[in-house]
Amino acid sequence: MDHLEQIIAQNMTELRKSKKWTQAELAEKIGYSDKSVSKWERGEALPDTKVLVQMAELFGVTLDFFVTENAAAERTKFEAPKSELGFRIGVELLAVCAVWLIALSLFLFGSNSPALQFKHFWLALIWAIPASALVMVVFSLLWKFRVPAIVFESILCWAALASLYLQFLVQLQANLWHLFLIGIPLQGAIILWAQIRKQRL
Known about the structure:
9 helices, mainly alpha, 0% strand, 434 Repressor (Amino-terminal Domain), 2 domains
């Protein structure tokens, strides 16, 4: 391990070239400058652990890959288990199922209960859409799924506004279509916040 910088430099370069990315493209994906990537690949500096973890996730390898000499020759040994991704997606889907189970229970119980005066329990199914999007946002941020997080934040924004619009329309007969105008700055804020998160990674 006397030449750790050179080992990491070689393995980083091999991974980048296997994807046919330039140093600038890799730098953009991990939120660093191409000068930093160039220094790492020349063995002039060591990336910190946070960067190595980020690149391990990006290239689908374990951390051992970076510190093992000639790791590229036996890359399959260092491939990260894909079962983890499947587990995470499974957890997200289970959480969404729980949201819909609660919404359906409210709908079925409320609709068939003569004691309850409220007649619009079907709105629970409408509100289940933004609630599901919120669950997906939380898990996407927790597990650093950057693109899905942006998508589900956008769905949450517009689905919540649509649910509010329907709630007012059904209960108060108020056509508050102006609510959707709020979605324009909110969507802009979502995109800007995503860029800020990217820079801070």
